[in-house]
């Protein structure tokens, strides 16, 4: 269900998470900054290539201590990594944010509000060839402006969406309270193997955005998510408060992953 420029995502536990899809303007600004950074990286790589080629005598066709073909292959791999791997690496290992997206307060998440993985990041960015290169950005513009979740074709194929940060200046990563940290080691023998990925996504989404919720909303959401989790956890104390349970499960899942 969509309300204006907000999208309500219903998790399997019946919890609704409100997300704000990013529009064309903010995404274009983020993309431009990322392009500038990529160009700077390519320029630096070109300088390194030129100086190294000169040092080993490759520029005049003679071979140095390192075979010229091997050197060229390394250069091509580095070039490809910057052009193709830039977005994939940042979105996978920086919780959905490239430097451009971070600067503009945007983040790539799954269409259920969870953290994006390597497979989804790869799919959405490889399809930039269609969204941007082949169609000269017209495909991306039409898709983003016409879809309910402001998704380009790559997002639709990968099951992702670009959203504005719910808590400007805050952290998306689940923050564990100091009072809970003590329990994490004590919970090392909990069996959380039966918890499904959608439930983990719901936990992470809640923990990452709870600071913008009212006390009542925060308490209610924590309880509703915890109700679905308790039957799937072996070893957890029955009297542990819902929000603390979610923190411990998130920490254990991250540690074991």
Write up this protein.
The structure is a single chain. This protein is of the alpha+beta class and 257 residues long. The chain has 2 domains: 1-165, no CATH class; 178-256, no CATH class. 57% of the residues lie in helices and 9% in strands. The chain has helices at 24-56, 68-93, 99-103, 118-126, 128-134, 138-146, 153-158, 178-186, 197-209, 215-229, 242-256, and strands spanning 2-3, 6-10, 16-21, 106-110, 160-164. The protein has a 5-stranded antiparallel beta sheet. A hairpin with a 5-residue loop joins strand 2 and strand 3 (16-21). The protein is globular and about 70 Å long. The model is unreliable at 167-173 (pLDDT under 50).
Please tag this protein with its features:
257 residues, 11 helices, 5 strands, alpha+beta, globular
Please summarize what this structure is.
With 257 residues, the protein is α+β, with helices and mostly antiparallel strands. Helices cover 57% and strands 9% of the residues. Helix 5 packs across helix 6, helix 9 (197-209) packs antiparallel against helix 10 and helix 9 packs across helix 11 (242-256).
Amino- and carboxy-terminal Cα gap:
32 Å
Major sheet description: 5 strands, antiparallel
The run of helices and strands is: EEEHHHEHHHHEHHHH
DSSP strand content: 5-15%
Question: What percentage of residues falls in helices of 4 or more residues?
Answer: 55-70%
Kindly report the average pLDDT value: 82
Overall form: globular
Give me the number of helical elements: 11
The helix-and-strand class reads alpha+beta
Q: Order the strands across the largest sheet as they lie in space.
A: 1-2-3-5-4
The count of domains is 2
Low-confidence segments, ≥5 residues, pLDDT <50? 167-173
Gyration radius, rounded: 22 Å
- Total DSSP E strands: 5
